[in-house]
Design goal:
This protein has about 140 residues and is an alpha+beta fold. The chain is about 15% helix and about 25% strand.
Length: about 140
């Protein structure tokens, strides 16, 4: 008999190997997790999901997600109507986020922060984090 995810106790880690898994949808796209379409005045970005088969989905909103797949309301190309897609995380290869210019809305990314280049000798990841944190705190 095949083991199911609930039998193995791995519900929380399934999808973890995917770049755009449950953590991405809950965190970076958290503003689009809702039961209805966003209103235009909310100034939310447009989001396109690019799938491994070449298809592109124009996201309206995220209906919900599980450890294995996400339920999405997506726009039908050219018709203005919506459909529901149940999509395994592994099928998403790229996400394009187009932020409205007039609002500058952010969804999980700090657009006002300019990244700095850390120069110097080779560092371990831990040393780099300490150096970056010291810079963030200032002199």
């Amino acid at each position: 008999m095949a083991e199911t995810p609930s039998d193995s106790g791995r519900e929380d880690v399934l999808g973890a190997g995917c770049a755009f898994g449950p953590v991405f949808f809950a965190g970076q796209l958290g503003g689009l997790v809702r039961e209805r379409c966003p209103q235009p005045q909310e100034g939310l970005p447009s989001v396109q999901l690019h799938l491994h088969n070449g298809e592109r989905l124009d996201l309206c909103h995220v209906i919900g997600f599980t450890p294995l797949w996400v339920a999405l309301a997506v726009w039908e190309t050219g018709s203005g109507s919506m459909r529901t897609e149940l999509l395994p995380y592994a099928s998403i290869v790229r996400v394009t986020i187009d932020v409205p210019r007039e609002k500058g809305t952010r969804i999980g990314f700090d657009q006002a922060h300019t990244p700095s280049v850390m120069r110097g000798v080779a560092m371990t990841p831990e040393q780099a984090l300490r150096a970056a944190s010291a810079r963030a705190e200032g002199p």
